Every structure is written in C-alpha cells, then in structure tokens.
Amino acid sequence: MANDSKTWRCGKYELSFDRPRIMGVLNVTPDSFSDGGEHFDPDAAIEYGLAMLDAGADIIDVGGESTRPGFTPVNPDEEARRVLPVVRALAKEGAIVSIDTRHVAVAKAAVRCGASIVNDVTGFTDPKMVEFVKTSTCGVIVMHAGEVAAPARTHATVQLDTSAAAFVAEKAREAAAEAAREAEKPARRRRGKLLGEPKPEAKLPGGVVQPSLPFGEPEPATEPASEQETPAAEQAAAAETVAPAPEATEAASESNDRLAAMMRRSARREEAYVPTSQLRRFTLPDSAPIMRRVMGFLSDQARALIHAGVSRDRICIDPGPGFGKSANEDIVIQRETAKMASLGYPLMCAVSRKRFVGAVSGVTEAAERDAATFGVCLGAIQAGANIVRVHDAAGFAQFLNGYWAVAKPQPRRAFVAVGSNLGHRCDNIRAARDMIAEIPLTCVSNSSKIYESEPAYETRQDAFANAVIEIKTELAPLVLLDELMKIEAELGRDRSKKAKANGPRTIDLDLLWMDGETHGGKKLRLPHPLIGERDFVLVPLEDLMHDPARFFRYNGVEVKEPEDRVGHIVGELGRM
Questions:
Q1: What is the mean pLDDT of the chain?
Q2: Helices within 384-530 (DSSP H only)
C-alpha cells in the first residue's frame, strides 16, 4: 500500500515501501518448475539478471537448487558453484542480490560475494544459519514451508459384540500386540533414540528455543545416507573464494531430507486427487487453523531471530505458497494477506506461476501463468504486501507502473544534472529544462544557476555549462530515464558507439537521485555512482539543498573533498 512506513535494511541498502518492490526470479538450475535450464549457464544467468534490473526489478533472487514438488536435493558445493559467479557479477553492477538457499555454507559464501539478502526456504530453523545471519548485516526472508492442515482421519465401521467370548478375544489381541511392540523396541533404536521420538528443539544463544522444521514427519529414506563429508566448495569453485564447512553440510542433511519428503508428499497429493461426489458446506477450508500455523510460525521465527541478535528492520516474512499447501489452502492464505501484513514486517508475495495460480486461472503450463500471477499479486498489494517475487519482471513492472500511476498519487523529489559544451550551451540547458517540465506526471520545482566547468574525464574539449534541475515526478525511475533519453535525442545528443562516452555533446542529462529509490544495473544506477567525485554536480546542488556532500554521505555515497574532484567549477554563466 502507498506510503507504507516499513523499511527493510539489507546490508548497505535500505528499501522503503512507498511503492511495492519487484524481486526477479533467477533460477541457475536445470530443473526448476517453470524455467528449468534457461539460465543454467552462468553467462546467460548474468545477462538475464541484468536485463531484469533494466526492465524494473529492484532485487534479483538467485537460486541454485530447485525446490519444486518432487525435487532432488543439491549438494551445497554444487549449489555454490552454480550461484557464486552470478551473485558476484550482479552485485558488482550495484544490484541488490538475494541468495535463495537453505545451506549456511552457500549463504556465507554468497554474502561474501556481495549478496545483501538471505532467503531461507526453511525459515531459519537451522541454528547455524541463525548464528551466521546475526553476525552479518544482510536482510533475511523467513519463509513457511510445510503442511498447514492435519491429515484426514478415516473412520472404520465398528460392529459391537457384547459377548464374553468377544471380550476375551479382544484382550488376547491387545496382549499380543503389546508383546510384539516390546520385542521390536531394541531393533528400532538408533543412536540411543527411538525412531518415533520427536527431535529435541535446538536452543539459540540467550536460551531462545528454535522450533522444529514445519514439514511434518519425514518419509523413510530409500537409501542409507553417506557418511562421507562433502568436498569443500572452495575446491568446486576456487575462483569464488568460498569454502563451505563440512559440518554445515552435515547439519543441513536432515533438513534436506525433510523438505524433499514434504514436497514429494505435496506432489503425490496433487497427482492422487480425484473429484468426489461428497458435498461440502463451504468452498474453502476454515482459515483460523491454517493462519494459526502459518502466522504462528512466521511470528515465532521472527522473534527468535530478534532474540538471537538480528534487528527487526532486517526481517521480511513469506507465507510460502505452494510449499506443502493445497490450492484451497493457498487461496485462504492469500485472502488473509492483511492479517500477515499487520505483524509489522515487510511482507513478500511469492506466488509466481504456482500450481494454485494455475488452478484458479485454468492455465496448465506454468510458464503461461504470468497474467494470472499479476492478478493475484495485485490483490496482495492492495491488502498490504510490500514485495512481489515474479519470473516476468519486465511484464510486472509495466503492470505495476500502469496501476500505480492511476491508483496511488505519489510525487517524489529527484535531481537531474544537465550539461552542454556544443552550440549555444546555456540555451541548450534552458531548452532541456522546458522539455523536462513537459514530461507526463512531472514538474520542475527548482533550478540551480548555470556554471562553467573544466571538462572531466576527456579533457581535450571545450569547457562545459552545467546546472542541476530539481523535479517532482510520479514516474518510476526507469520510465523517467527513458523520457530524459528522448529529450537528449531531440536536442541532438549522439549516443552511438562511434561517439566518445565523455566527449563533446549538445546536451547530457543524468538522473542523479530519487527519493526512496536504490537501483542497480547497466541502464541506471541510483544514486548515480559518480556524484561524489563531480564538482560540476555538487556545486550546483548547493543552490538547491543545504550541504549536499553531507546529504549524499548519509545516503551511502562516497563524496570526495573539493580538491580531489573532477570537472571543477571555474565561473558562473547566469541564471536559468
């Protein structure tokens, strides 16, 4: 919803939610349920991730293990080999990168390579994962994965027989069964515990109890687990400076099996479902027990993280649609989005192409469910969801921009740097200002004086005229950038490959900063990564704000001292 006061701190980034944020899905896997294999090659994955950023994604969620129904668990070393080159390349381009993993060794390595968010499908039920994130500054996503309804019980028909013979026979059967159970006990023991005994709850520092995984009872393994330690991920990907610890692999093995077993059960339930003639009074199951399990788990895990030392503003929650839940249960959970948003944490809607979306839309192929996904996401946004995790980031960005422009009036402040050193420099700058004022949903609120500056970077050219224009706009940053590029083209700016990147130009428009926006990618970086070294930007900004150097330092931008900057101001050329 508009003007949501929540913020999400993710390492060096801080995301505000004055508008919904888009998380693009990047599966570096051969077997994901809707796009398996499309981005398995690291170079293809990096290219696609950058394309999603340039199309409007705010976050890229990189995963190296498919968790679709019936998935095969992936060794942490193999998972690290898949994801680390992609994480490193995207982070280098200024992207906010989320690592989608349940293995603590992979999470550690990804954060070292630049990831800002750990998205744990097991909801941080592994104490080692909690121990890691409490010592970092990354954002965390707590997801619920598990069945939310108790299994149906079948009732056998009982035939009463009150005869003495029947009573004696029943007692004999009970005694025989008890003797059989006693005889089995020694064989059922393994490592000093009965197989049926519940796993003791782990304790975190400070005495906080870590709940068991919410996946129900695991299925028996078909093959004995290997006792051999997993090779270090540093050997599998030496160039990525990662060495997942063997103990992390061992700790994750049980959760791997439990999650895989839960998803296998989920797949079998879908395959085994057949319509019946049994009548029901209601179209959906009762929401109360379902939401008690989902919201209870998310609340408990968030509190456990806070008690362990993770600050509240780093935590995001996700109800985990599709993970052990039927279509009816997923719809119930989505309809209760407002209740989950009321918990006070940033809330994710991760329904993209899920089975229940296909069920309600009648679309069988997962890759064809994007339009229906957008509809479900819109309902979640209206009820308070802050982040949408989607496969089609470009399509959803268009969808959201159209909806938001009409439904949510939201003017935001931004600064545009203007420069020219060809033709009538000051006239070019004034023409650009007038054209900016004609951009839809945009107005010019203030302008600096026009200054003359030394050329920067490419010094063998004429001096520049420079100014900064303050605007208010309701456009998304990438949409605004496209409008600025149209103005450059109309005023004769040559951006072809034959033109020097920092050479002479009739007009140059740079989007420097926009209120509440952080963005990475090839097309646009916000804040502009070179603000802090450009004297011809910082001096005009002094006409529009008090102490711009301090302002940008507070926003995480490194600002150089005046003597260390480029493009020094040498004089004034007049007012706009």
A1: 84
A2: 393-407, 425-436, 477-490
All structural domains of the chain with their residue ranges: 7-147+288-406, 411-575
Q: Give the C-alpha separation, 521 to 516, whole Å.
A: 17
Q: Is 70 left (phi over 0), alpha (psi -120 to 50) or beta?
A: left
Q: Which comes out higher in pLDDT, residue 148 or 319?
A: 319
How does pLDDT run across 161-211, given as a tens digit for each residue? 555 555 666 777 778 877 777 766 655 444 444 334 445 555 665 555 555
* Poorest-pLDDT segment among 39-48, 97-106, 326-335, 395-404: 39-48
Classify domain 411-575 by CATH architecture.
Answer: 2-Layer Sandwich (3.30)
DSSP state of 511: E
For residue 36, count other CB atoms closer than 10 A to its CB: 15
Strand partners, 66: none
Q: What is the DSSP string of 103-138?
A: -HHHHHHHHHTT--EEEETTTT-SHHHHHHHHTS--
What counts of helices (H) and strands (E) characterise the chain? 17, 20
Kindly give, in sequence order, each residue whose CB lies less than 8 Å from that of residue 549, ignoring residues fewer than 6 positions away: 532, 538, 559
Q: How far apart are CA 82 and CA 96, in angstroms?
A: 18
pLDDT of residue 71 exceeding 50, the answer is yes
Q: What is the pLDDT of residues 457-492, one digit of tens each?
A: 999 999 999 999 999 999 999 999 999 999 999 999
- If DSSP codes are grouped into helix, strand and coil, which group holds residue 270? helix
CA distances from 442 to 20, 142, 408, 548 (A): 20, 38, 15, 23
User: What pTM did the predictor assign?
Assistant: 0.80
Residue 374 near residue 395, CB atoms below 8 Å: yes
Q: How confident is the model at residue 501 (pLDDT cuts 50, 70, 90)?
A: confident
Q: How far is CA 493 from CA 360, 420, 431, 503, 533, in A?
A: 50, 10, 13, 11, 24
3-state secondary structure at position 241: coil
Q: Please, are residues 147 and 269 in contact by the beta-carbon 8 Å criterion?
A: no
Asked if residues 36 and 66 have their Cβ atoms less than 8 Å apart, the reply is yes
100 Cβ neighbours under 8 A, 6+ residues apart: 61, 62, 63, 64, 119, 121
Element (H, E) at 10: strand 4-10
3 state DSSP class of 529: coil
φ/ψ (deg, to 5) at 18? -70, -15
Nearest alpha-carbon partner for 119 in 296, 374, 310, 348: 348
Residue 306 vs residues 100, 128, 131, 206, 309: alpha-carbon distances, Å: 21, 15, 12, 11, 5
Dist. CA 6–CA 335, nearest whole Å? 21
- What CATH class does 7-147+288-406 carry? alpha beta
Beta bridge partners of 414: 471, 514
The answer on pLDDT for 502 being more than 90 is no
* DSSP assignment of 147-202: --SPPPPP---------HHHHHHHHHHHHHHHHHHHHHHHHHEETTEETTSPPPPE
What amino acid is encoded at 218 in this protein? Answer: P
